[in-house]
Amino acid sequence: MSSSSGNGPASSVATVPLSLLSPYKVGEFDLSHRIVLAPLTRNRSYNYVPQPHGAVYYSQRATKGGLLIAEATGVSDTAMGFPDTPGIWTKEHVEAWKPIVDAVHQKGGIFFLQIVHVGRVSTYDFQPNGQAPISSTDKGVTPGLEGLELSPPRRLRKDEVPGIVNDFRLAARNAIEAGFDGVEIHGANGFLIEQFLKDQVNDRTDEYGGSLENRCRFALEIVEAVANEIGSHRVGIRLSPYSDFMEAIDSDPDALGLYMANALNKFNILYLHMIEPRVVGSRVFQGPEDEIPHRLLPMRKAFENTFIAAGGYNRSKGNRAIGDDYADLIAFGRLFLANPDLPRRYELDAPLNKYNRSTFYISDPVVGYTDYPFLEEA
Ligand SMILES: Cc1cc2nc3c(=O)[nH]c(=O)nc-3n(C[C@H](O)[C@H](O)[C@H](O)COP(=O)(O)O)c2cc1C
User: Fold this and answer.
1) For residue 281, is pLDDT > 50?
2) Would you call 140 helix, strand, or coil by DSSP?
3) How much of the chain is helix, strand and coil, in % rounded to 5?
4) Percent of the chain scored above 70 by pLDDT?
5) Which site in 181, 187, 209, 214 is 20 to 30 Å from 220, CA atoms measured?
6) Residue among 177, 180, 173, 164 nearest 76 (CA)
7) Which ligand 1 atom sits closest to the C-alpha of 114?
8) pLDDT tens-digit profile of 245-280?
9) How many whole angstroms separate alpha carbon 348 and alpha carbon 244?
10) Ligand 1: distance of its center to the CA of 334 in Å?
11) pTM for the whole structure
12) Where are the domains of the chain?
């Protein structure tokens, strides 16, 4: 939003109504449209190593001037909790990402890597030496939630926090080494950063718990370290204050989101990516199909750089959100997963492929991954 950081609509379109297909300048990146690939875990990176089929999958979804955010990728060997999700902490990971990034760049795409630590959303089996997963707390997620049997976590000691912050810093450096244009810090969906942010999980009594300022400290230390390492113009963050995923709930998500939006301005990072409150506690947002909740508006207004909204968007809702200046960019998850040419389909207002939930997380290198048809084949 702020002109000083160089973000904002390209001047050539200033007089026409803005839509998903309007160009947009995000920092140094010239986007030709505002349809962003949301980060989507696909479980096809065997033994945490990205695979050649990843190049096919991502380049299918790349467009000239289109922003893609790669799936959540672990920052260290304690960061993992799901089978065959990628990592970015070894030389092997970096080398394996390179051809995938190249394939996206060859099509003119802009490619960010989402970096994650899952914290307590893990089990002994995923941890080095079978140790307990780490978290802000030693409270575990309720056994059986979402069909998962997670292992009880171990509360990080205060003196261990800088080591985790450093893991994010090194992961960001590795992402740039692999050729990514930037990183998105995963501060959403119940993973480690949210385990610190949210008051129904974080029960610490040190300076990383208690007040809003204290609960946000860990996230902001990571933002600062990553921005110092690779430059703030290459850093985004994703937040989901309203989500209850993995029992990460906050009693005042409006205040949490707004605090973070304001606090992030200090670091002048490229973007803030927020997930809509479709589900809050046990309540599901059930507005009319094309209604936008507008609950993120205070955060959108408070944050001075690019604002990305995600969660439940379709073409008409996306156009409305852009036209209303509610968001600069819209990230699409399931629809982009099932429609590799989503920007073209939106341009033509063409029908969409339906997504198949049963193949979201299987390990097949083709099925449910690279075999969704393009428009001309549909
Ligand atoms: C298969 C699948 C994998 C996902 N993986 C991630 C992920 O790695 N990181 C993340 O922040 N969100 C992840 N999400 C959430 C999506 O990015 C997005 O927020 C969600 O699907 C809602 O957007 P949509 O209504 O456009 O699908 C995932 C969602 C799906 C369906």
Assistant:
1) no
2) coil
3) 35, 15, 45
4) 92
5) 181
6) 164
7) 9
8) 999 999 999 999 999 999 999 999 999 999 998 744
9) 36
10) 7
11) 0.94
12) 24-359
